Amino acid sequence: MLGGKDRLEEGKGGWPPAPGEQLIDRDLQEVRRIVLEGLRGHEARVAVRLPGRRLLGGTGLPIMKPLAGGALRRAGPALRFVLEHPVSTVIPGMDDVQQIDENARSGSERRPLSPSEREVLEEEAAQLGAQFCRRCEYCQPCPQGIDIPMVFLLDGYYTRYDLKAWARERYRALKSKIGDCIDCGECESKCPYSLPIRQMLRDAGARLGPSEPKKES
Predict the structure, then answer these.
(1) What is the reported pTM?
(2) How many CB atoms lie within 10 A of CB 97?
């Protein structure tokens, strides 16, 4: 654990890498959390190269969101992509024992990615693009009660997994709909990925169904 004058600073989002470099240059003994997903290979290499100068001097490098908030479905190759870099540890989200076992196996085997695995991972990353929700929930709570990460999760099922009817049904069950948005922009000011959340919500609403505001009780 960190104590005394040691400090914990989090480089949210990790892009662009310049802020991370500024943190490293402060010459503090700290833990750095950097987002390194199985995406955008060049940017990923830049992100881990910056703190590499002082890894031996007490700077830890845990990697958060290695599965892009659950958007990357092939956990094994995605984790092994991250472990190709000089990182301290990887912290994927897990919610059952099977995931724990599979993720631990990826860390213990340390097998390099095969050409076919790398190709599949790159194709999946290309399909996701740069603007998608990682479900970090920094945007919450919404003043209007909109569960923004859940809306984007359902939209992902609609667009990426072709579960259109399923996603629409669950969207209709949400208490607050996209139509409740008052365009305040508070969510965008808190998003570590600088996503255009309001426009993304409008796009999701066009797919998931009518976005009438909730009725006054």
Answers:
(1) 0.63
(2) 8
Chain segment 134-165, per-residue pLDDT in tens = 888 999 999 999 999 999 999 988 988 889 99
In 3D space, the residue among 112, 143, 123, 13 whose CA is nearest the CA of residue 69 turns out to be: 13
Q: What is the 3-state secondary structure (H, E, C) of the chain?
A: CCCCCCEEEECCCCCCCHHHHHHHCCCCCEEEEEECCCCCHHHHHHHHHCHHHHHHHCCECEEECCCHHHCCCCHHHHHHHHCCCCCCEEECCCCCHHHHHHHHHHHHHCCCCCHHHHHHHHHHHHHHCCCCCCCCCCCCCCCCCCCHHHHHHHHHHHHHCCCHHHHHHHHHCCCCCHHHCCCCCHHHHHCCCCCCHHHHHHHHHHHHCCCCCCCCC
